[in-house]
Amino acid sequence: MIQxxxxxxxxxxxxxxADDQIYTCKGRGLFRKKKVTPLVGDYVExxxxxxxxxxxxxxxxxxxxxxxxxxxxxxxxxxxxxxxxPDFNPLLLDRFLVLIEYKDIEPLIVLTKEDLTxxxxxxxxxxxxxxxxxxxxxxxxxxxxxxxxDEKIYPHLANKLSVIAGQSGVGKSTLLxxxxxxxxxxxxxISKSLGRGKHTTRHVELYEIGNGYVADTPGxxxxxxxxxxxxxxxxxxxxxxxxxxxCKFRGCLHINEPKCAVKEAVQNEEIASFRYEHYENFYExxxxxxxxx
Length: 293
Known about the structure:
This protein is of the alpha/beta class and 293 residues long.
């Protein structure tokens, strides 16, 4: 038996990197009976064969996992958001952040296409960037050609499994190609009618980049909060945490309760009003969700 990590999953076959060699594996039939699906990022035990094939016989417990894209044991999510083409969308960025915070994954926000902005757009972008930095997020701003990634992003990749997430057309595949010239991942132009790119990624695969693993992640253009309960949402907004113990009611949800320290912080401009509005939107969305049985 050897131990390794699944770096690619496609049509029921799994590429496992173990001892500097890639084994093309199938999962044990037992997994199907237990309804367990191996995921990219899983640490597994493999029974190898002499022809570089093998069988996955066990899967280590996961630290976390995403459903879309199906990937496990993520340390960091690089959220790519363009300034223009498509326009910067803080509501969508906050949807990503909520899901990522819920999964206990560290976000890195990368804002692209800075060079295509007007002076007014750039000023607004810097205002947003400073708000997110003030909350405690790392924010990087790069140009469309991404010629400064070496110094800006490489230091964040070492010894981590990172996913790249973001709306279609913001430059995720371009970023990966810039990080590693050998990847040659297909990219697509922005659809003028829809204002967004077409998905060009067909499966999940890990790439060794910057002494870490990076995954390109299809299926991230829409996000829902099906796993998040109402009482969990408040913990996904970092800036709320320092105020929640000052609320009058323990377990305050920061919506209708009197003497809520979070709402007071919004009124005092200590918490950005747009972030609180997004919290209210997401709260209502989860509240309206059909019950699951």
